[in-house]
Amino acid sequence: MAKGNVVVGQSGGPTAVINCSLAGVIETVSASSAMDRVYGMRYAVEGLMEDRLVDLSDKPADFLEKLKRTPSSALGSSRHKIQDPDLPKILKILKKHEIRYFFLIGGNDTMDTIHRVEKYCRQQGYELFGVGIPKTVDNDLFGTDHTPGFPSAARCNILNVLQAGVLARDMQRVDRYVIYQSVGRDAGWLSAAAAAARRDEGEAPHLIYLPEVAFDRERFLADVDSCISRYGWVSIVCGEGLQYGDGTPVSTSETTDKFGNIEFGAMAGTSVALNLHRMIMDRFDFRGEFQITESLIMSAMDRSVDLDRQEAYECGRRAVLLAAEGSSGVMVTIARRSNAPYRVDFQTVALSEVAEKSKPMPREYINPEGNFVTEEFLEYIRPLVGEVPDYATL
Amino acid sequence: MAKGNVVVGQSGGPTAVINCSLAGVIETVSASSAMDRVYGMRYAVEGLMEDRLVDLSDKPADFLEKLKRTPSSALGSSRHKIQDPDLPKILKILKKHEIRYFFLIGGNDTMDTIHRVEKYCRQQGYELFGVGIPKTVDNDLFGTDHTPGFPSAARCNILNVLQAGVLARDMQRVDRYVIYQSVGRDAGWLSAAAAAARRDEGEAPHLIYLPEVAFDRERFLADVDSCISRYGWVSIVCGEGLQYGDGTPVSTSETTDKFGNIEFGAMAGTSVALNLHRMIMDRFDFRGEFQITESLIMSAMDRSVDLDRQEAYECGRRAVLLAAEGSSGVMVTIARRSNAPYRVDFQTVALSEVAEKSKPMPREYINPEGNFVTEEFLEYIRPLVGEVPDYATL
Fold it and tell me: Going by DSSP bridges, is the β-strand pair B35-41/A330-339 parallel, antiparallel, or unpaired?
């Protein structure tokens, strides 16, 4: 077979390490005898359909090193969900640029895109090798022990909750509580990770509420009261996607807007952290604060984990090697072999499976009360997030 | 004079480096021939009045090194404003422990406390040397070029705005704006510092709104629209204490609570960032996000600046040396001598002056439009905050 060209894109929400995967693709393509030019899609398949490609083939080594230390998606990203009419447009561009290798770094919607593009091309008699590179801070991708991007975002949550917890402890004569809202709409992995901040009983965080567990206002208020009685203060972590038992988001506004409408969700100008803050203020005579970090933890390169950058790079590299060997229709996965020492293998899973399934926190990672994690979860998370700072106590 | 004992406390909101000042005091006392034991007040003067002192005299060197890397106020802090009836209680404790040297690390309320305690003791014929050690992330202390704690909190804002800005740029096909709310109720120094994140025109942040400038909703919406037209996205930084021209806080709720009351301020469950987010959503068809960091930037030791830790230590050390020489009623100040190379002197200012005055951003540091800083401000801030990361662009 003649040498084919390569296209790579970054899709969905960024991470601190997604450019490491991109660098892994670029550097491995340049060493591959089966592959020629490597193009980057601007804004993922949106840019591909607009023929907005960047030639990445001749980037110098020092640029690639800098790219590995650059957070977010340097090519630009999109959340476009592919539609049937998109497929002929994409095939046309692939043919135009003689592209035979198709890589996207992303989550389950992204894997669905690769799957559909690859299938359509095959049906049209155009040989295309499509391999997925996993990425999501949310860690809810099926088939992999964890996803690149998650460890670094988790570390950012850990440092935030740890340091704000020390402050809350020291300021307990003024403020009694600190509420920290993490991204993670459907899965609680990132909120749960904050538990690794705690070295000793009594330290932050005390309470963690996850989207996997139905939220109960009265139980929450009892938990808060109990921690403040016990420790003098309380550190609370919550996922942005918390829901009540009936499926109502906890971020539903308790107030009406100027037209008298009840509002829902963050886009209506409310949030889980703010509503928890209001619940505590309505019930108790405590002062406290809430923190909403949103994309801050998805792009914190200065808090990224070495292991995460290396694994992200390796997933990019493996994807190219797999495609060069004729593999297609799969996503690279990470399989953990041991915790001490931490060892992983890289394997694959069918794109169709990743596209259809997700990976919520298993119940055995959540305590029976539904307000913290278990020791099993801590064993899972600790090898991924690097060393947790140890502070002096007076 | 016989050797006297020493007491030191940490008062007001913590910083990442306030324990460096504490270590500076402890280590310098141990080398002083005029001073004997050094005690720490638990929760500042609240703990002092309760006779809750910790003997810090014999802490080993490795503990003190760890203390210098520990954020927040290891002794515990308070916001207690001293009252006349407190003064005899304090004198009684000082006499009980033969304390002749009184140090507090804090802001202007704290300096007022030292001033009043020192004056009262003198009136009562009890010789006490009281020296203040400056501290506040807000940087609004009179008489000093900047305050220890400010550079590190400023760097945290810079990294947050920089990294979330890269992400917002890359995600502009999905979200058009990112709003970042910084602490800083009366002074805009910390919000303004975020400007140092920007290396080139078009990068984050685009717009900065400071408490020193009356907020105008229509001008704000025009600014946002103009940036999105020009760049495709916009990064907005706001101080928590923004006010309209008539003095109404921008954090005033635009909705009513369940009893039909209009609400005010963060403690009522609203915030400036949330209200700016609502203004944009009400006017435009843009999606975006808001971030509220609160104490996260006050305690981010992993983002602290070397210079800030060193200056904080030095302020603690100087305070002890001054008191040992018989100085009293003053606060240590930092006077900048040059920017390149960065050089400072340490001087003093009368406590009474610091207690009475504050230091808002001067008008020449704010652009005429009131929506960004000037080059003069950037010259002021850049030497304080360490190197700003340089990322790859595709």
Answer: unpaired
Q: Mean per-residue pLDDT for B136-155?
A: 97
Contact A338, A44 (CB under 8 A): no
- How far apart (Å, rounded) are the C-alpha atoms in residues B169 and B166? 5
Tally of CB atoms within 10 A around B260: 8
CB within 8 Å: B163 and A302: yes
What residues does each domain of chain A span? Answer: 4-149+303-356, 151-301+362-383
pLDDT at A258: 44
pLDDT bracket for residue A10 (50, 70, 90)? very high
How far is B16 from B302, CA to CA, in rounded Å? 9
Interface of B with A in 177-236 (CB under 8 A): 178
Instruction: Give residue B262's pLDDT.
Output: 47
Q: Which CATH superfamily is domain B150-301+362-384 in?
A: Phosphofructokinase domain (3.40.50.460)
**Does residue B225 carry a catalytic annotation?**
no
Is A4 touching B (CB cutoff 8 A)?
no
Among B62, B171, B172, B277, pick the best mutation site for testing chain A contact (most A Cβ within 10 A): B171
pTM of full prediction above 0.90: yes
| pLDDT confidence bin for B264, thresholds 50/70/90 | very low
Is A290–B287 a contact, with Cβ atoms under 8 angstroms apart? no
Mean pLDDT of B48-67: 98
What is the structure's pLDDT at B267?
Answer: 53
Strand partners, A335: A345
> Is CATH 3.40.50.460 correct for A151-301+362-383?
yes
pLDDT of residue A2: 62
* pLDDT for residue B366 is more than 80: yes
List all residues 6 or more positions away from A218 whose beta carbon is below 8 Å from its beta carbon. none
Distance from the Cα of residue B278 to its chain's centroid? 28
ipTM of the complex: 0.96
- A-B interface: how many C-beta pairs under 8 angstroms? 218
Choosing from A138, A140, A223, A308, which is the catalytic residue? A138
> Class of B4-136+303-356 per CATH?
alpha beta
- Structural tokens at position A40: 């980057």
Are the beta carbons of B76 and A173 separated by less than 8 Å? yes
